[in-house]
Amino acid sequence: MLLDQLNRPIHDLRISVTDRCNFRCGYCMPKEVYDNHQFLKRSELLSFEEIEQIARVYVGLGVVKIRLTGGEPLARKELEVLISMLNAIEGLEEVSLTTNASLLTPKRARALRKAGLSRINISLDALDQTTFGQLNGIDYPVDKVLAGIENACAAGFENIKVNMVVQKGINENSILPMVNYFIGKNIVLRFIEFMDVGNSNQWDKSQVFGAQQIKNLIASEHRIESIDPNYLGEVAKRWRLVGSDLELGIISSVTEPFCRDCSRARLSAIGEIYTCLFSNKGHDLREILRTDNSAALLQETIENIWHKREDRYSELRATLAPNTQKVEMSYIGG
Q1: Which DSSP letter does residue 313 get?
Q2: Which of 2, 86, 88, 226 measures 20 to 30 Å from 65, CA to CA?
Q3: Residues 6+ apart with CB under 8 A from 141
């Protein structure tokens, strides 16, 4: 088993397939920064074959779950081809996807399912159009995202999660409406504390509506009971509404850090590996693929990167300088 400096194994790999997104959410790609941003050229992106080669090495070292991210991953053409390629890797148990659902048409949802996509995580930060339009930065209709969720259900996906990033003073009033809306829809609803990922979102701890506050607000209207984790290192604490099928998750990276169980690595769209969501520097694998193309060197490099890993940013957050540089979330996914 490949372990890092804190004896954490590698189980999960997040793969960004593009840095582009059609939304301008303030916590990820704020409009004032990204409207004139120079995005990557197609030639700079890893090819599907290069992604598959890296993924195969990681699976051989212990990865059992891969999640495709962006940017908005459905902006990458023929993503279904990559999903089929990844599903062919022996030992890989799950390929999932995080999306804003704006491009999740009935046809696309069916194609993703046919390719073997196991699970879909859909970002939705409010149900009312005023709040949602403000948060996505382009006034995108919330009804179209809800239609995307329905398309995923109709395509046969049974494992769908809806993720809401909660920001104090902006959308905490949407928590209870979200809970009430998703009762009976066979969807897991997860609430995520507003995190200081990257440097462009102007994060301040005063904007954090914490896990305990989220739980207390839900409990003010509903009886909830705790559920055991699905596996060691699961980031969300799980709850269930008593008397319903609705499962809730709360991700508390700020108020209750879970670094000690973190088993995730992140691959950027240009082939840089990051060992923490809050890293400031990645490790280039694309150069190995495009110059040496040596499977042995690739594996040795990946092993060394993980073995030297000692990241625990969330646990150290209070001791670090406020202007500590970090990679942007849109660059490596969530």
Answers
A1: H
A2: 226
A3: 129, 133
> pTM of the entire structure?
0.94
pLDDT tens digits for 238-272? 999 999 999 999 999 888 888 888 999 999 999 99
| Token code pair at residue 157 | 């996906």
Can you list the alpha helix ranges (DSSP code H) found in 173-328? 175-182, 211-219, 286-287, 295-307, 313-316
Which pair of structure tokens corresponds to residue 299? 């594996």
Taken in order 219, 221, 225, 227, is the CA torsion positive or negative? negative
Please, what sign has the CA dihedral across residues 295, 16, 156, 241? Answer: positive
Which of 332, 195, 200, 196 minimizes the C-alpha distance to 274?
A: 332
Our CA angle for 228, 230, 233, nearest 5°, is: 100
Contact 86, 52 (CB under 8 A): yes
Q: How many CA atoms lie within 13 A of 200 on its CB side?
A: 18
C-beta of residue 302 within 8 angstroms of C-beta of residue 57: yes
HEC string of 213-253 equals: HHHHHHHCCCCEEEECCCCCCCCEEEEEECCCCCEEEEECC
Token digits for 248?
A: 């809730």
Q: Which residue has the tokens 């066979």?
A: 186
Nearest to 330 by CA among 253, 268, 246: 268
